[in-house]
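The records we work with from here on pair a chain with its fold. These numbers are not coordinates but entries in a learned vocabulary of local backbone shapes. To see the layout at work, look at the sequence and tokens printed below.

. . .
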Amino acid sequence: PRVERDFRRLLDDPQVDAVVIATPDHWHALMTTMACEAGKDVFVETPATHHGAEGEWMLETARRTQRVVQVGLQQRYGAHFQSAIRLLHSGKLGKVASAKAWFVQKRQPLTASVSGEPPTGVDFNAWLGPAPERAFAVHRFHYHWRWCWDYGSGDLGLWGSQLLDIAGWGLNVTWPQRVAASGNSLVLHDAAETPDSMHVLFNCGDTSSGDANGGEQTISWEHRTWSNHAPEGRTAGVAFLCERGTLVVDRGGWKVYDCAEQLVSDSSEPSRSHLAEFVDAVKSRSTPLANLESGIVSAGWCHLANQSFRLQRELVVDATGRPADAVVMADWAPTYRAPLGFA
């Protein structure tokens, strides 16, 4: 394949029908909107956004240009994730009272590095793109960027955008009504800006609709990156606490505990069908299951939680996912660096 140093040359190429965006998070929304404006369909990795307001811009552009945009929520395509959600929605387990999602795994401390020159061949100015201008440092570069607020959303953005998507899907909720987060760097005390420990409670309000899932519901999140002792013995997963059992699902399968009937499923491979649907959607102009709206919501839950953590107070959220807080709204839209890191 042809290699370009400047992604805009790909957008200029009429032979390119679609693009895949797998950059650090701070580039996702801007590259998506630029690609849509150039007439390209887009597959963008999760989290789809790095700032709350970016979702509105992406949706407006995708709809106006009539582009297909799919987000990397591949777990939606796993047969066992789908069967778990069908079981929940069937009412067989009774009322789904609440859900919890988590990621717990020990990582190595992030060692601070001194500022210096980027590796040969790296256009660090373009890598920064819309992010604030900073000197190059190894601990803020490849892989490690996810623990720096300028480029990532920490372990909550990395794992929460996937797992909270499943939790919200299972409970049939779109946005929370209140978000309260607490956490800190309790153990690692390293160069990471994002916390190594966090607990979040999302209150989804009264979701009564006449079905088995009616009533006030909550979703909780936990991550610890200094321990290997995870809930339910699973590094990353979602548990649905139901009236007639607890359904626990992760990439290895699902099982219902505390239930008279044995209900269990092995794992399934989601990536092939996930990517196949994107190609099919480009050809047929259909809307993918992991559509842009879903990707914006799954990322938005993480942004709300991170804002609550950084302000150390509860946030009230309206029906569109916007926080009813002037301080948060002032930071809801990004200020992109001009001229975006390149000529």
About this structure: Confidence is low (pLDDT under 50) at residues 209-213. Residues 237 and 250 are 5 Å apart (CA to CA).
